[in-house]
Amino acid sequence: MFCAGVNIGALSVKAVALNGQRRDARVALHCGRPLETLKELLAEDGFAGVEYFGVSGQLGHLTEVAAIRRALRELDMNFDAVASLGGEAFLVYFLTRGRITNVLSHNKCAAGSGEFFVQQIGRMGLGMEQAIRLSLPGKVVPLASRCSVHCKSDITHKLNRNEATPADILHTLHDSMAGKVVALLEKGQRPLRRVLLIGGVSRNAAMLAALRGKLPGAEFAVLPESPWFEAWGTALLTRDQPRHRSPKLSVQPRLGRLPPLQRVADRVRVIPAPPRQLPPDGPMVLGVDAGSTTTKAVLLDPATGGVVASHYLRTQGDPVASLRACLRALAEQAGNRPIGLIGTTGSAREIVGAYLGTEFVFNEISAHAAGAGHFDNEVDTIMEIGGQDSKYIYLRNGVPIDYAMNNACSAGTGSFLEESAKSDLGVAVSAIAGVALAAPSPVHFKATCAAFINSDIRAAQQQGHSHDDIVAGLVYAIAANYLTKVKGPRPVGKKVFLQGGVALNRALGYAFAHQVGRQVVIPPNPELLGALGVALLALKRSSGPAGTPGELRALAAPELERVGRFTCHACKLYCSIDRFKVGGRVFPFGGRCSLYENVWKRKSRAAAAPDLVEERTRLLFGPPAADPANAGRRIGIPKALLTHSLIRFSPPSSTVWESKQSCPVWTRRAS
Length: 671
Prior knowledge:
Blueprint (H helix, E strand, L loop, with lengths): L1 E7 L3 E8 L2 E8 L4 H9 L9 E6 L6 H12 L5 E5 L4 E7 L2 E7 L8 H10 L4 H8 L12 H13 L5 H22 L6 E5 L6 H10 L4 E4 L6 H12 L15 E2 L10 E3 L13 E7 L3 E7 L6 E8 L4 H16 L3 E8 L3 H8 L3 E2 L2 H12 L5 E5 L4 E7 L2 E7 L8 H12 L6 H6 L5 E2 L8 H10 L4 H21 L8 E4 L6 H11 L3 E3 L6 H13 L8 E2 H5 L3 E8 L8 E7 L2 E5 L7 H4 L11 H10 L11 E6 L4 H4 L8 E6 L4 E6 L1
Parallel strand pairs: 1-4, 5-8, 8-9, 11-22, 12-15, 15-16, 17-21, 21-22
Antiparallel strand pairs: 1-2, 2-3, 5-6, 6-7, 10-20, 12-13, 13-14, 15-23, 17-18, 18-19, 24-25, 25-26, 27-29, 28-29
């Protein structure tokens, strides 16, 4: 009997033909075209004349669990687990006496998957075999490997600054992938002696070495059948029970459509930017937003709160160098003006604040709330989207009372949109808005990861969706991802502000207006609101510009130089503290607490505050005001919940309260 088994995965199609003792196997990437790829495979010589077919995987009628179970029975070998290392997902099948008893998989994220690795080596201009060989002598270095998009930025920065070699980067990627598999294996909470590796990644020798290094007590086996194990099991099932003369395929799901973005044009309000103000005679306020992707700086007139000059550029992994470039650009715009007050915010606010020697360092939540309130004090919901971070802020009377941020995932950020548009469409970020707003029928994408949405884009192209509709679908996707992954179940108020660098893409405001069902306001220069807000906060918290910091070019002149490091012994955490030098100023920086902040903030250390916890204990459990020996009956009250704390506030005048430290009761003596 001539049988064929087919397994259709997220990224590839595998086919195995069984004809007596002869066995032929093929593996091919489908690039979003699984049916066309399958047709091409079955047209090859090894599959001519197949009588019966079986299909497992995404479009099949057989489950992958059944296929793996059947293939294991054919092997007649003992394994404790099977690790399926695919392009889009890693799964672990735990075995008991040869039977699958549990299946575990990681969350829907590309980081650490086969596709994740292929994308990274593609950006480095390496082939698979070359990358594997180069990885083996490398070492593990710190890398933001929890998200494919963030990892790309980190790799670029480390290679550009010579902080790591390509071998180190590749070795770290393999270590991250192996760590994901080991984490799944350890969830089984059982001893693992032999683990069978299957799937395309099982052919990666560097991955195998990383797994063996992390679990030296386990034997990891790779068989000749490992790359097409599920297809082989499917062929064996078909030989056992031949039924279908042609491949039985499920209908490939078609991507849906969404209404055109222009339909909600009446719900989007763009506040025009006011004209730039002339520089004042006196010192100005400098606001800096040092973000993970971009650095923004504004100069503010302290008398009017108007913006005099601003600059916006890529951080490129070096916030201090980016800050210095911003200061020089501001000097070009407004002249080498004196700065009397400085405020910093953003993910690099501490190091930038230390470089500038300012005490006015605020978090992004406060800064963006202040920036939005500058244009409308009735705003109650802020959706801020940056290159790698997204924030949700809910305000009441101008005060943030709730907030949320994305959790190490680029879905719902500017990187998601930029990466997706570049991958298969070749659309520059600046062109996305015009293309998306002109689209008549945007595609409804379901992928929530920038690394995986490439497959959906290719599927949309195969289904005949236009280029403009696909771009508009990506704009809808970033809004949907933000609302799902960042905002979550939190409320949307009456007045919604959309800000951050991604809000420069006006089409995104239309997508949010459609999703939340109410008006969305895009303020002037939405990319600068963090810098504007922190400048306003510094002005509000101070007595006004004092003229101390200096002129713009003088602030940008000194280098930030690390001159030493020491261990802090103030507590048992023993933090490592760096010692930096800026110009003639040397200061310590780092640590888990604010012990050394006052040094670089140029503030005198505050006097020791009274211990309020100790004072409360004295008031509650101290000696009674009256002599308990003269009282009568005794009533016990447990030292639990709030009873023992609150009852002291309203005792009758004839009551004497006594604390019994040896037992958990208050005693009341009443005559």
